From TrEMBL:
One Pfam family hit: Ring_hydroxyl_A
Segments of this protein annotated with the region Disordered: 416-437
Ranges for domain Rieske: 43-149
InterPro entries linked to this entry: Rieske_2Fe-2S, Rieske_2Fe-2S_sf, Ring_hydroxy_dOase_asu_C_dom, Rng_hydr_dOase-A
Enzyme Commission number(s) from the entry: 1.14.-.-
Protein name, per record: Iron-sulfur Rieske protein
Cofactor: Fe cation
Record bears the keyword Iron: yes
Recorded family membership: Belongs to the bacterial ring-hydroxylating dioxygenase alpha subunit family.
Record GO terms (molecular function): 2 iron, 2 sulfur cluster binding; iron ion binding; oxidoreductase activity
Compositional bias of kind Basic and acidic residues: 428-437
Length: 437
């Protein structure tokens, strides 16, 4: 896709530690570029393994004009294909999810197995070669139960860096042995970057998220140190250091890894304690499910957060997992998909109550939707201009924008290249920063 001179100029003049210029949030031209340069070139988190628990189970996910079919095959592997028949292009699966034995086109009954091989195509003659008409595969990675796809011919190779770093953190929570207890889609009337920027800070949390801040430490939001809060911040930092040492001794990796801006597949993780002797992100900070995940025997294991560029964040606790995936729909409209997962043997109404399980993030998502929409409306004003980020609470917003502008610049200069070979050492920063989503 050709990048206009005006867009190139905006990319080149982007001011560090300031929000983006308005067209990055409002322009249809830039939205189209985002879909091509970001969502077609990078690893996009779109599902969790329990979306397709059994052979033949499938879901469909739309990325721009592309419908992607994600299915579990007979060998229990998760596969991804373009949801397009190789005959005349009809869409194969036309529901969001389901189960099937073979993949059968509803138009002329061309039939594919779960590996994507064309098995049956009537009336095509003796010279027809079925082997040349398999479904078009999409690159897929399963990271400890989180499913990522990439639409590029040559996806970024640095996913191996993410896997090596994150599997030790995530595997103890046994996401693959969970079930989806609830899933909610919301539409935010705002640009996807505003959704992600809002996620990357908690400057706004105390004033806007009373439910979420029950279980999150106030000083975990990122604060400017002052004489008035010095004692509280020191106590929080001592708690983090003490609990991190305890968890590490339990073989639960917890230290911060921050690679949000220096990798093509940017990510960050950290396990932090929860407030009020917290066990989980609930209205009383206690577990929402009596059936703990994996082999856990105690509930107060804090909250492990995992963020990925460009479109997801996840919270892993002792009793449940909350997974968020963001899909752009237009320059001013974004899908936010939230899934709550519990142990596959947990019994609804006995071990957990869905309303209690989802209460905090249902409220928080609705509050964040309003904040994103306020920001989108402001970006359309003639008075809008990029404003400065707080160096204490919005550093990770800057990391997101730095990553985004870097990827856009890379695409503008060389649309088909990646700098995925970057394997610089991970940063284990001393600064403790928590942000809510």
């Amino acid at each position: 896709m050709k990048v206009s001179a005006d867009v190139r100029a905006m990319i080149e003049r982007r001011k560090k530690n300031y929000s983006l210029e308005a067209p990055f949030y409002t322009s249809d031209e830039i939205f189209a570029l985002d879909m091509e340069a970001i969502f077609r070139q990078h690893w996009i988190q779109v599902a969790v393994e329990p979306d397709v628990p059994e052979p033949g189970d499938y879901i469909t996910v739309d990325i721009g004009n592309d419908s992607i079919l994600i299915v579990r095959d007979d060998d229990m592997q998760v596969r991804a294909f373009h949801n397009v028949c190789r005959h005349r292009g009809a869409r194969l699966c036309n529901t969001d999810k389901g189960s099937l034995g073979n993949i059968v086109c509803p138009y002329h009954s061309w039939t594919y197995n779960l590996n994507g091989d064309l098995m049956f195509a009537e009336h095509m003659g003796e010279q027809f070669d079925r082997c040349k008409h398999s479904l078009k595969a999409v690159h897929v990675e399963n990271l400890a139960g989180l499913i990522f796809i990439c639409l590029a011919d040559n996806p970024p190779a640095d996913f191996a860096v993410v896997r090596a770093a994150m599997e030790p953190y995530m595997l103890p929570h046994a996401l693959a042995s969970c079930k989806i207890a609830a899933s909610i889609d919301i539409i935010e009337e705002g640009n996807w970057k505003l959704t992600m920027e809002n996620n990357r800070e908690c400057y706004h949390c105390v004033a806007n998220h009373p439910e979420l801040t029950i279980s999150l430490y106030e000083y975990g939001f990122g604060y400017q140190r002052t004489p008035a809060n010095e004692e509280g911040m020191a106590a929080f930092e001592e708690t983090v250091a003490r609990r991190t040492a305890q968890w590490e001794a339990m073989q639960l990796p917890s230290a911060e890894i921050e690679r949000l801006a220096d990798l093509v597949t940017g990510f960050r993780t950290q396990r932090l304690p929860l407030d009020r002797d917290g066990e989980s992100q609930t209205l009383d900070a206690k577990v929402a499910s009596k059936k703990l995940l994996g082999g856990f025997e105690q509930a107060d294991l804090g909250g492990l957060s995992f963020w990925t560029q460009p479109n997801s964040w996840h919270h892993f606790m002792s009793d449940h997992i909350v997974s968020f995936s963001v899909i752009p729909l237009s320059a001013g409209k974004t899908l936010v998909r939230t899934k709550w997962l519990v142990h596959k043997d947990a019994r609804e109404g006995i071990d957990y109550d869905v309303d209690n399980l989802t209460a905090v993030w249902r409220a928080t998502n609705d509050q964040d939707r309003a904040l994103v929409e306020y920001s989108q409306r402001g970006a359309t004003s003639s008075a809008y201009e990029p404003g400065p980020y707080s160096p204490f609470t919005e550093g990770l917003v800057e990391k997101f924008c730095e990553w985004y502008i870097g990827r856009m610049a890379q695409y503008s200069n060389a649309p088909q290249t990646h700098d995925a070979g970057d394997t610089a050492p991970a940063s284990h920063g001393e600064k403790v920063v928590s942000f809510k989503r």
